[in-house]
Every structure is written in structure tokens, then in C-alpha cells.
Give the backbone structure.
Amino acid sequence: MSESESPRRRRSRSRRRRHARRRRILLTALVVGSLLLGLAGWVGLRGWQARAHLVNAAGLAGELSAQLVGGDTARAQRTLAALQEQSGAARRATGDPGWWLGRQAPVAGANLTAVRQIAITIDDLARQAFPALLRVDLGGLIPQEGRLDLNGLRTVADDLVAVHATVQRTRTDLAEISGDRLVGQVRHALAELRGEIDRLAAMTSAAERASRLLPPLLGVDGPRRYLLVSQNSAELRATGGMFGAFAVIEANKGRVKMGAQGSSSNLGRFEQPLKIPAEMRALWGELPGIYPADVNLSPHFPTAAALYREMYRRYSGERVDGVLAVDPVVLSYLLKATGPVRVPGGAALSAENAVRTLLSDTYQRMSPEEQDGFFAGAAATVFDTLFARNVHPNGLLSAFDRSMQERRILFWSARPEEQRTFGDSRMAGTLPEQDTVPTVGVFLNDGSGAKLGYYLRQTADLMVGDCHADGRRELSLRVTLRSTAPASGLSESVLGLGRAGDPYTARTLVSVYGPAGGAVLDTRLDGAETSVGNGTERRRQVATVNVEIGPGGTRTLEVSLLTGKTESGAAELWLTPTATPWTTHVVTAPSCSQ
């Protein structure tokens, strides 16, 4: 009997052990599941808290920026305190043990790590960079009563070095985050923050560089002399406009004054052309080395400035230390900060009427001799206002920053060690031979011999396309030019040489520069094949098309391009600064590795 029951007992004990093991496994699973659900709930709750704090911080950062530019220091201090409270709360919400455990998860971890780094970045800026910016006395960057305080400038330089170091560190930290496994919302937030940090880094870099360069440029080590050149946007050139009026600026120990003035027409025509780069000669012949008005047919400003400096030396027998180029739109931005000024023998110039007065009304109402006198008087008056009137530094710095971002202020130093410091910054106007992001240039040169550029309106649309197996990428460019010129009633000064035949038709040479190491594939004007002039400049293929536009007319240029090898899904445009700003649209795409 006992022998027959023994197997049954063994089977019963085995079943009980299996049931017990299943209960333990189930209990363990329930406990672990509950912990995971609790952790997910905790991380989710903290995530919503972090999101709310980050959204609030982003809004406050925008307010702080506006208050800094506007010079409202008291409100900026209060906004900064609120920003630090929100950024600190976001940092704490993403820094507890539950969030750390969530970051170890295979999929969600990458997103939680990215949000954590975003919170750290904003908090570091709020506690290190922004307070230092509030402490900086921006007045040290602005001349007072015709003189720049060089000791004050050195103090500003020290503060800006510290600010720039913080911004660069946060920029590097953000760059290390991979976007491959991020969900759309986090990827978008990361891209937005990277863009803002890039813009902030560009500004702090420029300010820090300026604070270091200004003392020697303003004669701390001995007198300096520069040519201040006005680019006339009514007669377009690649860098902005034909070099028209000029003035000699003298600087010594921080004190700045205006010297002799003249016009490019005074320099004459150079029968023995100046030496120009072979690539430029292949594109434009000897013109840049013969005519002062043509030195900037190429967008590479250092070459144009060096040519103009040598032309001035041959004309005057005097050497200058550099060339500074501006356009009437810069003047309008500065007048917004200074208020209107009255030009002797003319009307008051204001932010609202400066561009129209200098690029249209003057040519309509004055003789060539009166025009030269008016331009000289306007330059002297605005110069005196900038250096003699007490103007709030924030307004002026905002005007300068906007002008440099739009490439309307360009500077070249004849001293190589100083020029290298400017690098590929927008102010240097250097056409780079390498691209960080694939960049397409659209540059305009007047071919009419007239002042019809004032009446042009321009749009540019750039779309990033398919990836190629060799690492290149397709780009599609669409440029539209429209003429708002009237069909009659313009003066001879405006109509000029009328090289297009009909004097009211604007002839514009549109040069499209492909990305560095890339290619220009196909060019069509109004949907049809068109004649194209081809060349190369600084590792960029160039296609130039003659576009003629009658009053009220519109022409559309479509260009297909290839980038060099790139992982980027972004692209940028570099455009000739015009009297009326361009309307632009760039459509990006995911990187080829995604």
C-alpha cells in the first residue's frame, strides 16, 4: 500500500512546489511591475513638471533678451530671478533618482537624457551667463563725446570672455546629444535650443572679439586711418552695392574723427589694371581691377577692400589701415537709436525715410553735383551724431548687431594678424572655402548702369532634397525678382546708361554660388533653358544668369544643386543685402543617417 502511494505523494509534492514557484514568480512580477509602473508614473509626473518649468523658462528668456536690448535693467533683474526659479525647478525635476533610473531604459532613456541636458543648459545660462551679461557695462563699447574709454573697454572684455566661455561650454554639451532615437517633440525642442545657443554664441563671440580688437583698431598703439565706404544699394553689387561715397576715418587713443571725403568717381579709371585673382578674372574679366565701382562684383569682401585700398593709395598717395563698408539701411537702423538728424541743405533724415531719401529721392530731385554735397553732408552729420550725442548703448548695439547679421557692415584690416582674428565671421565678409552647413549664395550685380536696384523685390526659397549614395545631397533653389519701378517719370540720374535697351528695364546679373565642394546642375529662367555663365570661386561652382525685368514684371530663376559630402539635413542662404530685405524660406530635411 505504501509503495503504491509513494509516487502519488511525490507527484503531489512536485505540483505543490511548482504552484509555490509560480506564486513566487507571479508575486515577484507583480511587485516589479508595480515598481516599474510607479517609476513610470513618477517619471511621467516629473516630466510634466519639467516641461511646464521649461516652457515658462523659455518665455522668460525671451522677455529677458528684449529687456537687455531695451536697456530696462530693473525689469531684467526681476525677470532673471524668475527665470532662475523656473530653470532650477526643471533641473531638480529631471535630477532625482527616479529620473535617473528612467534614463537607463532602452528607448525612453535617450529622450529623458536629452530633456535632462536641456534643463541643465538653460539653468547654467540663467545662473552663469545671463547674470554676467547684466553686469556688463555696455556703455564701454560705445564712444562718448567722440572718444571710446579704453579702460572701460578692457573691463567689458574680461566680462565678455567669461560669458562666451559659458555659452561655448553649453553649446558643446548640447552637440553631444544624439538625435537619432528622440521622439519628435524632444528632437524639435533640442533643435530649437541648439539654434538659439548658436545665435547666442555668435553674438557673444562677436562681442568678445570686438572688445579685444577695438583698442588696437582705435589707435591705442598709435594712430590708425580707415576708409569708410558707402555701398549704394540702388546700383547693386554682390556685397551690397556699388562703392560710392567714401570718407577717411582717423583714430588715435580711442578718439575718432572724420577726415577727407570723396567719391569713387574721383579715383578714376585704372588703365593698367590692378592684379586680381585668376578665378575672379575668369568670371568678370579685368573689370574689378579697372573700375572702383566694380571691385565688389565678387561677394568675397577682403578682395574688394584690398583693391579699393590700393586704388585710393594710387589716387591720394596715402595708405589706410583698413576698409569699413556700410549701406543706407545701416543708417536707418542707427537713426532709430539716435533719433532724426538734419542734413545741411536738405531735409531731416530719420529711420523711416533714410533709405528712400538716399537711394531714390536724392537722385530724382538733385543734380549730380548737389547729390555729392548732400551725401557728404549726410555722412558728416550722422558721424557727428554717433560720436558726439549721448545715445543709449543698447539701442546702438542692437542696430549694429542687426546690421552685421544682415551682412550690411563689413570690415577688412590691412594687417593680416588682425584680419585672421575676424575669421569667417559675417562682418569679415569672407566667402568660406568650407561649409559647416551647406550654404548657397545668391548675389546680384546691376548690369543696367542705372539706379533701379532700389525698385527690386526679391524672394529666395531653398529646399533640401534626396541623399545620394556618395554622401552628397540635392538642393532646389527658386529665386524670384520683381520690379516695382514706374513706366515713366524717373530722372536721368536714376535711368543711367540703360544698357538693357529700355531705360526702365532693370538688367540684373544673378550669380548662384553652390555649396563648397558641391555643384550647380541645372538652371532655368521662367521654366525654360537659359544661357549661363559658369565659373568657380573658392571651391564653389558659380552660375551667372542675365535677368531683365521691366516695370511691374516678375522673373523666376530655378536652380538644381548638389552639396559636398554632408550628414546635415539643414541648409543656409547667403544673399546680397538689398534696399528692401529678401523674403526667404528654407525647407530642411532629416539627416541622411536617420
